[in-house]
Amino acid sequence: MTATTNTNGGPTELDTFLPQDNSNTNGVTKYKVTKGNDLEAANTEFDPFKNRQNDHPTTNLNTLTHLLKASLGTGILSMPAAFQAAGLALGIFSTILVSIICTHCAYILVTSAHELYKRAHKTKMSFADVAEEACLRGPKWARGFAGPIRQLVLVGLFVTYFMTCSCYAVIIARNFNYVIDYYVGYTTEIRVTIAALLVPIILLVYVPNLKYLAPVSMIANVFMGIGLGITFYYLVTDVPPVSERNLVADISTYPVFFSITIFAIEAIGVVMPLENHMATPQHFVGLCGVLNQGMSGVTLVYMVIGFFGYLKYGDQVEGSITLNLPKEAYAAQIVNILIALAVYGTFGLQFYVCLEIAWDGIKKRFQENARIAEYTLRTIMAVSKVPLQTIIL
Q1: Using 50, 70 and 90 to split pLDDT, how confident is the model at 327?
Q2: What is the DSSP secondary structure assignment for residue 4, as one 8-state letter?
Q3: pLDDT tens-digit profile of 345-391?
Q4: Per the UniProt record, which residue ranges are transmembrane (predicted)?
């Protein structure tokens, strides 16, 4: 930038505001202008991962452990029944297809969130936040649906995982009763068992965050792995030839396969809570990311249990494969106890989804006594599942 020097030798008006570079040629003073720091900051792309703050961030291994626990739930025990509805050959193909669909949906959710982080200058978003922000930053016709879409996602997630927790309590009680009934010689009232489980469940939901819940999930994974290992031993012992089973089942039962498999594999409700608590959230997606690692292993286990379970028991397969095991065998009893403990460990992760939704909706009203209010909410939600469990029974 240049300006003409005052003929009287004094500073010009520009001299007062702009720094000179001490050069003057033919009565013309040259000025050096530098770009301000605020302009540089404005041109720098917002990095949501560097700005994210977590009191208890989880590692990639912690997140993978949670993801495996969320996906390797009780649904895996019903995979032999799913293969019965699809057939051995079609069951393998369809399990891979369902897994790809579920993984792709989770992948779209997380990658969309990462892009919206940058556009909205946010470091975290829930599932509902992503849906709302996508509408707000989408075409004009979609912006008016932002609020309703957010509420729809929240209600859907809450109902799904709240009912799942209620079902989990029933499954835990039934697995314990499987062993108890054999030794006491009569059928134990399952409602009594559920009531006895209430205190351990409340203690579990008091775990403050996912960081401290990771060891519980890891132990639950070990129990589930041992239980499935013993079950697999029974499944591969004295198996009949493949020719005795349907490779492709009747098309009328095919929807049953999808309903069981989707229930078993999908865990999209825990995807954003897991991603939000990661120390390196960019590692959640990608070819060798946490999501692909977890879902690849889950898919393989589901196919193996489903294939050999149906191959071993055929049309006699039960809704839960553990019910086909000999009740008098110690190994079968150990399986049911381990599965019950594994599902108990999973309960906390499923409950966390409900808690996050409910707490986000009311926490602004309890800023002064937030800790007391949060744990009161945890207790009420845990206790309120008992009436629902009675209805389910």
Answers
A1: confident
A2: E
A3: 888 878 888 888 898 888 888 888 888 999 999 999 988 876 666 65
A4: 81-110, 152-171, 183-205, 212-234, 254-272, 284-310, 330-355
Comparing CA positions, the residue from 70, 71, 48, 56 lying closest to residue 133 is 48
Amino acid found at 290: V
Buried b / exposed e along 315-329 (16+ C-beta atoms within 10 A): eebeebbbebbeeee
How confident is residue 43, by pLDDT bands cut at 50, 70 and 90? very low
Q: What tokens does 36 get?
A: 């301000």
Hey, what amino acid is at 84? Q
Contact (Cβ atoms closer than 8 angstroms) between residue 162 and residue 175: no
Is the per-residue pLDDT at 53 higher than 70?
yes
- C-alpha 191/C-alpha 198 separation (Å) is 11
- The candidate with the shortest Cα–Cα distance to 265, out of 232, 229, 301, is 301
Return phi, psi of residue 4, to 5°.
-80, 140
End-to-end CA distance of the chain: 83
Q: What are phi and psi of 58, to 5 degrees?
A: -100, 150
- Residues spanned by the domain of 255: 59-392
Q: What is the pLDDT of residue 226?
A: 93
Q: Examine the domain organization and report whether 8 and 84 are in the same domain.
A: no
Rounded Cα distance between 8 and 5, Å, is: 9
pLDDT at residue 48 in the model: 84
| Contact between residue 53 and residue 123 where contact means Cβ atoms under 8 Å apart | yes
Q: Is the alpha carbon torsion for 266, 268, 271, 273 positive or negative? A: negative
Q: How far apart are CA 348 and CA 336, in angstroms?
A: 19
Beta-carbon contacts of residue 341 (< 8 Å; ≥ 6 apart): 220, 223
- pLDDT at position 377: 92
C-alpha 171/C-alpha 199 separation (Å) is: 16
Clarify whether residues 69 and 7 are in a common domain.
no
**Euclidean distance between CA atoms 350 and 337, whole angstroms:** 20
Average pLDDT rounded to a whole number, residues 253-265: 90
Distance from chain centroid for Cα 208: 17
Q: Read off the CATH number of the domain in which 180 is found.
A: 1.20.1740.10
Nearest-angstrom CA–CA distance, 351 and 159: 11
Q: Would you say residue 52 lies in a domain?
A: no
Rounded Cα–Cα distance for residues 255 and 86 (Å): 9
Q: Name the H helices within 185-249.
A: 190-205, 210-235
Give dist(CA 18, CA 295) in Å, integer.
61
- Domain count for the chain: 2
